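Thread amino acids onto this structure.
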């Protein structure tokens, strides 16, 4: 048994938060935590986080804009879980795959944060192309530091989405302590596709019949006329394209956690 007090709310530090998909996934997996700080550089994404906080749909927490300048000593030995969907462009097959030569390569800075902060568990996400470029470095650098690691490929289609969206998830915890505090999903819930709180499956896409509980997908364009989709479409698509499907993150957390403990 672990000597970690599972009745205590865990403290989470979120790197490259995006719209909070990983954190929402942990909530779906039944993890009790509080995010103490978000680290996110994209202006539109930050605005999205602030809006959700102001509307009460997300617990309020400070937002730092640059992982490279985060005052790490403040968080030393105070973080139970460190999450991050660090930039995929250095590894993505859709890009030039420059790896460590890409200026968006943030892993060295995240590793420095791990050295200083010493979180008990880390949970990361990236694209499938990371397997052939960079993943071995990540795993080895964590294990050298005493973390036991597990990783796997998980797709949105596994949890009922109409698209595949394969992603690599990495989990690691210190060899001396194990974080508990998650509930198991019913097997049929995972195998039959994820359903929302209202018992409905994934929302329909533009052009499909709308459910009564859905907000309309056809909105008025700020430039006049009408469009099928959402306002601020380019930024919104970028936000969603870089984001994590929460249900996939939940499945990854539960699966990898079982491998580790």
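Threaded sequence (261 positions):
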């Amino acid at each position: 048994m672990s000597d970690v007090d599972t009745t205590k709310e865990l403290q989470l530090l979120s790197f490259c938060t995006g719209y909070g998909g990983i954190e929402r996934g942990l909530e779906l997996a039944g993890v009790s935590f509080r995010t103490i700080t978000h680290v996110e550089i994209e202006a539109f994404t930050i605005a999205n986080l602030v809006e959700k906080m102001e509307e009460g749909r997300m617990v309020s927490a400070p937002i730092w804009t640059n992982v490279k300048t985060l005052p790490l000593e403040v968080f030393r030995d105070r973080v139970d879980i460190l999450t991050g969907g660090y930039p995929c462009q250095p590894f993505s097959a859709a890009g030039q795959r420059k790896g460590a030569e890409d200026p968006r390569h943030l892993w060295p800075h995240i590793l420095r944060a791990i050295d200083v902060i010493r979180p008990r568990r880390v949970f990361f996400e990236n694209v499938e192309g990371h397997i052939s470029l960079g993943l071995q470095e990540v795993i080895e650098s964590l294990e050298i530091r005493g973390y036991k690691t597990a990783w796997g490929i998980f797709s949105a289609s596994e949890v009922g989405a109409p698209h595949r969206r394969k992603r690599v998830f990495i989990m690691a915890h210190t060899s001396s302590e194990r974080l508990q505090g998650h509930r198991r999903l019913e097997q049929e819930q995972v195998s039959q596709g994820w359903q929302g709180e209202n018992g409905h499956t994934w929302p329909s896409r533009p052009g499909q019949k709308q459910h009564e509980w859905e907000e309309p997908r056809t909105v008025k364009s700020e430039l006049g006329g009408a469009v099928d989709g959402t306002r601020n479409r380019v930024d919104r698509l970028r936000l969603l394209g870089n984001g994590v499907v929460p249900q996939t993150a939940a499945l990854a957390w539960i699966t990898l956690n079982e491998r580790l403990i």
